[in-house]
Write a structure and sequence with these properties.
By secondary structure, the chain is α+β, with helices and mostly antiparallel strands. The protein folds into 2 domains: about 80 residues, Kinase associated domain 1, KA1 (TATA-Binding Protein, 2-Layer Sandwich), CATH 3.30.310.80; about 55 residues. Helices cover about 50% and strands about 20% of the residues. It is built from 4 helices and 5 strands. Helix 1 crosses helix 4 and helix 2 packs antiparallel against helix 3. About 15% of the residues are buried. Keywords: Membrane, Transmembrane, Transmembrane helix.
Length: about 170
């Protein structure tokens, strides 16, 4: 599960797998009955692997897999680790609000500067928005770091299912 960029808050990966996508999707469906450590949900060619509600915290990750057919013998697996979509949407909403406020106060500061009136308050609020943006980024980084073990558990579970399903599956792919 190596990532090439430490700035990524929601790590992604993709792998080519030598098995038809329906075989892999059925393996994940079967896995939800054979174990109780994870909640496995399938929608079309998407598989969502989550921790049970009792084990979830604010930033607990989930693994979203998209398994697309390339041909009769090959599939492409796209994976995305991230928090619950509701948490991620809220997190991005806060980023959007901070950016909008920064732009609005920047326009207001520019107008006041051109009108030769006081614009210190607007500049102060713009600086505050930058501080809040960095705080949001570091909060996301801390959340990602605190859930790294959970991400490894999800990744290991995915690899176990693939190992049972795919002949000659190499864990070092990717």
């Amino acid at each position: 599960m190596p990532t090439t960029n430490d700035i990524v808050l929601r790590p992604r990966f993709k792998r080519e797998i030598s098995e038809h996508n329906e075989v892999i999707l059925k393996a994940f469906e079967t896995s939800k009955k054979e174990q109780s450590q994870f909640i496995v949900t399938r929608l079309d060619n998407h598989v969502f692997i989550k921790f049970p509600k009792r084990e979830q915290q604010f930033w607990t990750p989930q693994l979203h897999l998209e398994i697309d057919e390339i041909d009769d013998k090959t599939s492409m697996l796209h994976g995305l680790f991230g928090p619950n979509p509701t948490v991620w949407t809220m997190f991005m909403f806060f980023h959007f609000i901070v950016a909008c406020l920064f732009i609005a106060f920047g326009a207001w500061a520019y107008s006041n500067w051109k009108l030769e009136t006081d614009y210190i308050l607007q500049i102060g609020i713009m600086i505050l928005m930058v501080i809040i943006w960095f705080s949001l980024y570091f909060a996301g980084s801390i959340g990602k770091a605190s859930s790294k073990n959970d991400m490894h558990k999800l990744n290991d579970f995915m690899n176990e299912v693939l190992k049972k399903t795919v002949t000659n599956y190499d864990l070092e792919q990717g």
